[in-house]
């Protein structure tokens, strides 16, 4: 499979290593200095594009893939206000798009645990939920995309909560998400339920970027000849 890597930073390089290890060819490595490679004729040399850039650039990069008729796997976080527009464009232009706030198999299983735990806690009014996410200091967005996905799952099951805030809170109608930035930290997410009697905590800790990169390559292999909008739930059959 021929892959265009859009974003050649920490994730782009981790994805390159996994993709080449699986026998794929990287036809473009696109960073901020090589935006001419985002032109239609260049992108069309790839079977699939994998986009890991910045919150400011993801939206335009995805639209360029659509214009070139190239399926795109996107892992960039922090741009989700534009997601509905991207999905509409994908359907209108008959393209293929797969977004995940986290591509690792472990986190996608953790999402399922989180959803179930939130469901069980929905009728337990003694417990207060909260979240902590810990990442490296170069991370541009807070809270993390993964934390937002986890929060949305909790809010869906707990109607008493009307939203999340990116700080610790005692407001029972809000889910507090505390973001910590320390090095090194590839990504840790902690969900906690506290009552006066006890606490329940579930934690996912990434030991490296390998799981994110492997999941993104698996998603690209899966998306290559498809049309439509997909998620890691489709890829992993969860
Ligand atoms: N979904 C998931 O599983 C995961 C998602 N992420 C997300 O992926 C994104 C990237 O993370 P990471 O690799 O750590 O970040 P880095 O800062 O290491 O890399 C970002 C890359 O994007 C490049 N870039 C900036 N602007 C453009 C542009 N206009 N076109 C093409 N490339 C551009 C940068 O180029 P230059 O260096 O020249 O500035 C850099 O190479 C973040 O949003 C992060 O949150 C991260 C890990 C897992
Ligand atoms: O920027 C990162 O590094 C990560 N970003 C993703 C996120 O925002 O959730 C996924 C992972 O936690 C690493």
UniProtKB/TrEMBL annotation:
Domain of life: Bacteria
CDD domains to which the protein is assigned, alphabetical: DHDPR_N
GO MF annotation, one: 4-hydroxy-tetrahydrodipicolinate reductase
Record InterPro entries: DapB_C, DapB_N, DHDPR_bac, NAD(P)-bd_dom_sf
Pfam families: DapB_C, DapB_N
Reaction equation(s) it catalyzes: (S)-2,3,4,5-tetrahydrodipicolinate + NADP(+) + H2O = (2S,4S)-4-hydroxy-2,3,4,5-tetrahydrodipicolinate + NADPH + H(+); (S)-2,3,4,5-tetrahydrodipicolinate + NAD(+) + H2O = (2S,4S)-4-hydroxy-2,3,4,5-tetrahydrodipicolinate + NADH + H(+)
GO biological process: diaminopimelate biosynthetic process; lysine biosynthetic process via diaminopimelate
Keywords annotated in UniProt: Amino-acid biosynthesis, Diaminopimelate biosynthesis, Lysine biosynthesis, NAD, NADP, Oxidoreductase
Pathway noted in the entry: Amino-acid biosynthesis; L-lysine biosynthesis via DAP pathway; (S)-tetrahydrodipicolinate from L-aspartate: step 4/4
Domain Dihydrodipicolinate reductase N-terminal: 1-103
Signal peptide: none
Dihydrodipicolinate reductase C-terminal domain location: 106-236
Keyword Amino-acid biosynthesis on entry: yes
SUPFAM superfamilies, per database record: Glyceraldehyde-3-phosphate dehydrogenase-like, C-terminal domain, NAD(P)-binding Rossmann-fold domains
EC number assigned by the record: 1.17.1.8
Entry GO terms, CC: cytosol
Family: Belongs to the DapB family.
Name of the protein in question: 4-hydroxy-tetrahydrodipicolinate reductase
Provenance organism: Chitinophaga lutea
Lineage: Bacteria, Pseudomonadati, Bacteroidota, Chitinophagia, Chitinophagales
Gene (name only): dapB
